[in-house]
Design goal:
Layout lengths: L8 E2 L35 H12 L8 E3 H22 L7 H13 L1 H7 L5 H8 L4 H11 L8 E8 L2 E11 L8 H4 L3 H20 L4 H21 L3 H4 L8 E2 L1 H7 L5 H7 L8 E3 L2 H13 L2 H15 L6 H16 L7 H12 L1 H12 L2 H23 L6 H12 L2 E5 L17 H17 L21 E3 L4 E5 L14 H18 L20 H19 L2 E3 L2 E2 L6 H22 L11 H12 L2 E3 L1 H10 L5 H9 L3 H7 L19
Parallel strand pairs: 4-6, 7-9
Antiparallel strand pairs: 1-8, 2-12, 3-4, 5-6, 8-9, 10-11
Helix pairs in contact: 1-24, 3-16, 5-14, 6-12, 8-9, 8-15, 9-14, 16-17, 18-19, 18-21, 18-23, 21-23, 21-24, 23-26
The chain binds zinc ion.
């Protein structure tokens, strides 16, 4: 599993978005009074006040662990893609065209008769390779070869911009090895986590039984495998440490890596993956790589064989027959997220097609669904937001002129990408067959792997995108100092072509401001205007920033997620700074645009409509299990706290809704934080 991502501080954690239910058609003016619950006072609980009606009308579908305004739009994008696919399936396309590849990939995934008939036979070559291993050297060789199939049972490799020389791509080695989301799942000992650990061991044993082991030995092997993963969890880097860009930046050459982890044959490794001359590369988690190599050496080969078998079947579970894919869902969907039902097959296969042929689908998607006027409107909005942030920086009372000047330079240097890439990815080297879903998944992994390896030690291609146009999300990429808004997010409830300014600034305006603020959050501020890790701050300014950021982290850490579990204000700090910054910047930009026009609509002032529109984008229902999971793995706050958290710090919100001392939404003036 690939947990390593340097690209992008996104607006929302990537999640499977899908639902059979259609979106509420947005009113032309953008806000629907029925979404609110005016029996709750705005000052008591603004999330309920703004979203109570929406939450009641949109109960969680069985196939969802959470359902919010984002998902409504995700559903819309999913339906549009379904229509595209249906159109393609009815047409005739020549071999080699992207339409033919999409049609064949999708058809292979929907061919459940063939998938069931093949059983676990597609796994057979992998199992035979494991059985044939004679030594640890053999195993290292196998691990290297398997990376191109998307299997990273111990560690992975990724090509990304050098964080200190952002014009060049380098290789990053990153930790892997755990079947559960991160180290906390193994090391925490609260009741809920202990229950998950128990179910995880049953899941491992269940899969081994599918491979033909008897129940007793499968149970025993599951204990061994679990103990191995727990050992790895002990030397894995925490999520929090991974947010520190310097902690994950450890540049080395082969000689240094050989010294760090001498049990591993690194020269052979790089040669096998096709990077004969890796040059200098980054070891994201040196402690992990060091201990992993030692552990590989120490544990018996027989244990590693069972470990590899389990990881192989688990990693491919989604493309195997129903019995196995259901077992995977039972653990990853039901146990971890509390989702009662699996998504219908067409949605899963469509999602998989989207992964394999993302920009090919995107190319067809924007032709059909992205109006060119939306891009122009967006560009104008972005420039207004940039102007607003510029003036806010000029007026900051806590920052020196020297740092302000650098901040403005960085702001002016932000590149903006809207809609879709200027240059589409070339899929001609990717072979797709209508006959085997499993083979298509392998081919796609190999295609992306080779593409990625080919970029090591080459200049960064600035035209590349980190998300497809049909993705409902947005991101800031610190090493490129760029903000990116895929076509699919430029629709209601984020972006309305014909709503009044207050509604658009409250939604897409805040999204733009959020992404811009990432350039200046606790992580992003460490990068300069060309995207290098490079300290451009006066010491006192950095100290004052950190003081404010710590206060914000403490505020969020007081939110109770469930029972005794609190939110993690440190893990979510960057996102919370971006939410608060986004609101402040967009509020300023809105007033520049309104230019004194305070016209009420439906009895609400522009200021009120701004905050209601913002609240609505985080309207959400969510399962308890998912709250707990996200609190452990997600750098974003839960939707409810994305509403409550930043607004409690904004005096503009207080005056818009007449928030008074004693209200839950009220924080004493000296406790409120404004950073940007
Ligand atoms: Zn973000």
């Amino acid at each position: 599993m690939n947990y390593f991502k340097t690209l992008g501080l996104s607006l929302i954690a990537m999640a499977a978005v899908s639902c059979s239910k259609g979106p509420q058609k947005a009113a032309s003016k953008g806000l629907a009074p029925a979404d609110m619950d005016t029996t709750v006072a705005a000052g008591v609980d603004f999330d309920e006040y703004a979203n109570g009606g929406w939450k009641k009308r949109n109960p969680l579908p069985d196939e969802k662990s959470r359902y919010g305004a984002f998902d409504v739009l995700g559903d819309e994008s999913e339906k549009q893609i379904k229509e595209l696919f249906t159109g393609i399936a009815e047409g005739t396309f020549a071999d080699g065209t992207i339409e033919k590849k999409i049609a064949d990939y999708y058809a292979s995934g929907m061919d459940t008769a063939s998938i069931e008939a093949a059983g676990l036979s597609p796994l057979q070559p992998f199992i035979e390779q494991i059985d044939a291993l004679q030594s640890k050297e053999d195993m290292q060789q196998l691990l290297a070869e398997w990376q191109s199939w998307g299997l990273n049972p111990l560690f992975g490799i990724y090509a990304d911009a050098d964080q200190k020389n952002s014009a060049m791509k380098v290789a990053y080695l990153y930790q892997s090895g755990l079947g559960m989301p991160n180290r906390d799942y193994y090391l925490n000992e609260d009741e809920h986590t202990l229950d998950i650990q128990q179910k995880y061991r049953l899941y491992i044993a269940g899969l081994l039984e599918q491979l033909g082991e008897d129940s007793a030995s499968a149970t025993q092997d599951a204990e061994t495998i679990y103990a191995m993963e727990k050992e790895m969890a002990g030397f894995s880097m925490s999520m929090l440490d991974q947010r520190d860009p310097y902690k994950v930046y450890n540049k080395m050459d082969l000689e240094q890596l050989n010294k760090l982890a001498p049990q591993y044959k690194w020269t052979a490794y790089f040669k096998t993956i096709g990077a004969n001359d890796p040059g200098d590369f980054i070891v994201a988690q040196p402690e992990f790589i060091k201990n992993m190599a030692a552990m590989l050496n120490e544990k018996p080969l027989a244990d590693w064989k069972q470990y590899l078998k389990y990881h192989t079947v688990s990693d491919f579970a989604g493309v195997l027959p129903k019995t196995v894919s259901d077992m995977s869902f039972e653990f990853y969907g039901k146990t971890l997220s509390g989702t009662p039902a699996q998504r219908p097959r067409w949605k899963r296969v469509q999602g998989s097609t989207n992964n394999a042929l993302g920009e090919a689908v995107g190319e067809l998607y924007v032709k059909e669904y992205f109006p060119p006027q939306a891009k122009e409107r967006m560009l104008k909005l972005v420039e207004n937001l940039r102007k607003a942030l510029g003036s806010r920086i000029e007026n900051l009372s806590w920052m020196s002129d020297t740092t302000k000047e650098k901040a403005i330079e960085k702001l002016n240097g932000i590149t903006v990408k809207i809609g879709y890439p200027d240059k589409w990815k070339d899929y001609s080297a990717l072979e797709i067959t209508p006959d085997s879903y499993f083979q298509n998944v392998l081919n796609s992994s190999k295609f992306y792997f080779e593409d990625m390896i080919g970029k090591i030690n080459k200049p960064v291609d600035k035209a590349e995108w980190g998300m497809t146009p049909q993705t409902v999300n947005a991101y800031y990429n610190p090493s490129a100092n760029e903000i990116v808004f895929p076509a699919a997010i430029l629709q209601p409830p984020f972006f309305y072509m014909d709503a009044d300014d207050a509604v658009n600034y409250g939604a897409i305006g805040v999204v733009i401001g959020h992404e811009m603020s990432h350039g200046f959050d606790d992580q992003g501020r460490q990068y300069d205007k060309v995207g290098n890790l490079n300290d451009w701050w006066q010491t006192e300014d950095a100290e004052r920033f950190t003081g404010k950021a710590n206060r914000l982290a403490d505020e969020y850490s007081q939110f109770t997620v469930l029972d005794t579990v609190k939110a993690d204000g440190k893990l979510t700090l960057g996102e919370n700074i971006a939410d608060l910054g986004g609101l402040n910047i967009s509020y300023t930009a809105m007033h520049m645009a309104l230019n004194g026009n305070e016209q009420e609509i439906d009895g609400f002032t522009p200021n009120q409509r701004f905050f209601l529109s913002y609240g609505h984008i985080w309207a959400q229902n969510i399962r308890d299990e998912e709250k707990l999971r996200l609190t452990k793995v997600d750098v974003h706050s839960l939707g409810r706290y994305r509403v409550l958290g930043p607004l409690r710090n904004m005096p503009e919100f207080y005056s818009a809704f007449n928030i008074k001392e004693g209200d839950y939404m009220y924080l004493p003036e000296n406790e409120r934080v404004v950073i940007w």
